[in-house]
C-alpha cells in the first residue's frame, strides 16, 4: 500500500518551519481507498506569502489541533506503507520531524512522483504537479491545498502504474536496497534503519557481532556496504553471515566516532581490522634541550598520549605546528620547520610557555555539547584534565552533575584521544567548563 502525502507548511525547511495542513491519500496502486485531511495549529505565525499561496489564514488554524494531538492518527496511516509525495524529501522531512517531536519513531520507504515520471515519461518540459496533472488530464480542484495535492499525486502514481508497473517495482527495490541485501537479512530490518548519526552492529545468526561501524546516516552507510562491487571471498562470506543489524543512535558524528571505538575494542568483531592493526599516527610534541630551551617537533604518536595534539597525517601535524609558530611568534628553527625566523630566544621561551599553558592537558576539564538522538536530548563528551573521560546523553537543561551520571562508558585509547583532539580543534564545538 502507498501513503501519498502532501503538507502545507510555514516555510521551506523542516528544522525551522512547521506543518499547517496534512493531506494523505492511501492507495493500493490503482485507486484511493482512504483519505485524511487536517489543518494543524503550527503554534507560530503564518507568513503572508504562505497565506497568499495556500489561502490558509492564521484564524483558520487558531482552533485546530497541534500536530502532536493528531500524531497517533497520522502515524497509524503511514506505518507500514510506502511514503509517496511529489518532491518526496520535502514532505518526508516535515512529517519525520513532526513525528519525532511528538515522540514517535518512524521510518518508511520513499517514492518520488517527480523522479518516477522523469524515468517513465521522459521528455516533458516541466514536471511540476500542475504540469503533470495537465499532461495526464487530471483535475486538481484546489492547488496548494494538502489533500487535493495528495490526491493529484496519487492519480499520477496510478497513471504511472498503468504505463510501467515493472519500472516502479524496480525503483522501489533499487532505491531501498532490496536487491542487494544479504540473503539472510529480513528486508524490514533494513527498511526500518534510522537515517541519523550513530553506530551499527552487523550480527550473525547467534547474535554475535560480525562488524561494528559508525555513520552520519546509518541507513545510507549500510546501503553502501551492500551495493559494493567487491566479489572477494571474505566479503561474500561476511555478507552471507549477516542475519540482523542493530543500531544505537547518537545524535552526532562526534559521539558516533567515540562510541564506535569503544564498542570495537570491547567486542573485537572478526570483520573489523582498523583498530586491531592501527596505522601509525602523528603528534606535535614539546621538549627542552640541554640549554633548557623549548623545542617542538612532529613525531610518530601511534601509542603515545603525552603529546600536544594528535593528527591522522604528518602534513596536518606540520600545518598545525606552523600555524602555532606564526600565531605565538615562536622560533621556527626550534620547531623543526624549514625557514628562518627573527624571534629572539627570550621571546621564543616566553611565547612557548604561553602556548603550552593554553594547551596544557592538565588545564582542561569540561563537557563538549552536541545534538542528542532526540529533540529533547543532548549528547556530551566528558574531558577530565585533558583526557577523554566518556560520552553520554541527557535531557536538555540537565546540570553537568546530572550529565555525568548518565555516561555510557569511558575508555582510554590512542584513537579516542585523537578523536578528542580533532573535536577540540573544531570551530563550532560548544565547550562547557567544569
TrEMBL record:
GO biological process terms on file: DNA replication proofreading; nucleotide-excision repair
MF (Gene Ontology): 3'-5' exonuclease activity; DNA binding; DNA-directed DNA polymerase activity
Transmembrane segments: none
InterPro entries for this protein: DnaQ, GIY-YIG_endonuc, GIY-YIG_endonuc_sf, GIY-YIG_UvrC_Cho, Ribonucl_H, RNaseH-like_sf, RNaseH_sf
SUPFAM superfamilies xref list: GIY-YIG endonuclease, Ribonuclease H-like
Entry superkingdom: Bacteria
Stretches assigned to the GIY-YIG domain: 195-273
A Gene Ontology term for the protein's cellular component: cytosol
Gene3D superfamilies: GIY-YIG endonuclease (3.40.1440.10), Ribonuclease H-like superfamily/Ribonuclease H (3.30.420.10)
Database matches in Pfam families: GIY-YIG, RNase_T
Function: DNA polymerase III is a complex, multichain enzyme responsible for most of the replicative synthesis in bacteria. The epsilon subunit contain the editing function and is a proofreading 3'-5' exonuclease.
Assembly and binders: DNA polymerase III contains a core (composed of alpha, epsilon and theta chains) that associates with a tau subunit. This core dimerizes to form the POLIII' complex. PolIII' associates with the gamma complex (composed of gamma, delta, delta', psi and chi chains) and with the beta chain to form the complete DNA polymerase III complex.
Name used for this protein in its record: DNA polymerase III subunit epsilon
Species of origin: Phaeocystidibacter luteus
Organismal lineage: Bacteria, Pseudomonadati, Bacteroidota, Flavobacteriia, Flavobacteriales
Amino acid at each position: 500500500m502507498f501513503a501519498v502525502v502532501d503538507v502545507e507548511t510555514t516555510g521551506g525547511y523542516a528544522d525551522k518551519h512547521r506543518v499547517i495542513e496534512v493531506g494523505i491519500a492511501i492507495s493500493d496502486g490503482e485507486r484511493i481507498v482512504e483519505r485524511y485531511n487536517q489543518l494543524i495549529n503550527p503554534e507560530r505565525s503564518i507568513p503572508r506569502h504562505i497565506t497568499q499561496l495556500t489561502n490558509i489564514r492564521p484564524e483558520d488554524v487558531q482552533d485546530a489541533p497541534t500536530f502532536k494531538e493528531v500524531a497517533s492518527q497520522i502515524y497509524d496511516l503511514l506505518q507500514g506503507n510506502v511514503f509517496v509525495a511529489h518532491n518526496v524529501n520535502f514532505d518526508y522531512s516535515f512529517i519525520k520531524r513532526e513525528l519525532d517531536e511528538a515522540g514517535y519513531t518512524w521510518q518508511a520507504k520513499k517514492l518520488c512522483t517527480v523522479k518516477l515520471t522523469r524515468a517513465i515519461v521522459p521528455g516533458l518540459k516541466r514536471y511540476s504537479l500542475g504540469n503533470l496533472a495537465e499532461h495526464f488530464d487530471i483535475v486538481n480542484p484546489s492547488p496548494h491545498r494538502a489533500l487535493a495535492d495528495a490526491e493529484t499525486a496519487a492519480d499520477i502514481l496510478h497513471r504511472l502504474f498503468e504505463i510501467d508497473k515493472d519500472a516502479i517495482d524496480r525503483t522501489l527495490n533499487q532505491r531501498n536496497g532490496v536487491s542487494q541485501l544479504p540473503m539472510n537479512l529480513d528486508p524490514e530490518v533494513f527498511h526500518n534503519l534510522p537515517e541519523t548519526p550513530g553506530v551499527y552492529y552487523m550480527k550473525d545468526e547467534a547474535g554475535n557481532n560480525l562488524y561494528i561501524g559508525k555513520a552520519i546516516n546509518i541507513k545510507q552507510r549500510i546501503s553502501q556496504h551492500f551495493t559494493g562491487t567487491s566479489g572477494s571471498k571474505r566479503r561474500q562470506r561476511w555478507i552471507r553471515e549477516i542475519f540482523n543489524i542493530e543500531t544505537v543512535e547518537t545524535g552526532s558524528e562526534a559521539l558516533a566516532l567515540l562510541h564506535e571505538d569503544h564498542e570495537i575494542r570491547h567486542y573485537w568483531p572478526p570483520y573489523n581490522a582498523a583498530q586491531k592493526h592501527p596505522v601509525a599516527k602523528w603528534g606535535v610534541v614539546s621538549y627542552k634541550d640541554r640549554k633548557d630551551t623549548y623545542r617542538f617537533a612532529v613525531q610518530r604518536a601511534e601509542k603515545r598520549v603525552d603529546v600536544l595534539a594528535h593528527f591522522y597525517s604528518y602534513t596536518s601535524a606540520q600545518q598545525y605546528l606552523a600555524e602555532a609558530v606564526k600565531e605565538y611568534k615562536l622560533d621556527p628553527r626550534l620547531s623543526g620547520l624549514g625557514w628562518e625566523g627573527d624571534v629572539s630566544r627570550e621571546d621564543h621561551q616566553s611565547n612557548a610557555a604561553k602556548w603550552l599553558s593554553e594547551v596544557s592537558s592538565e588545564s582542561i576539564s569540561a563537557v563538549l555539547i552536541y545534538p542528542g538522538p532526540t529533540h529533547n536530548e543532548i549528547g556530551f563528551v566528558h574531558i577530565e584534565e585533558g583526557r577523554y573521560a566518556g560520552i553520554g546523553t541527557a535531557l536538555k537543561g540537565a546540570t553537568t552533575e546530572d550529565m555525568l551520571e548518565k555516561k555510557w562508558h569511558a575508555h582510554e585509547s590512542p584513537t579516542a584521544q585523537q578523536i578528542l583532539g580533532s573535536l577540540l580543534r573544531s570551530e563550532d564545538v560548544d565547550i562547557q567548563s567544569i
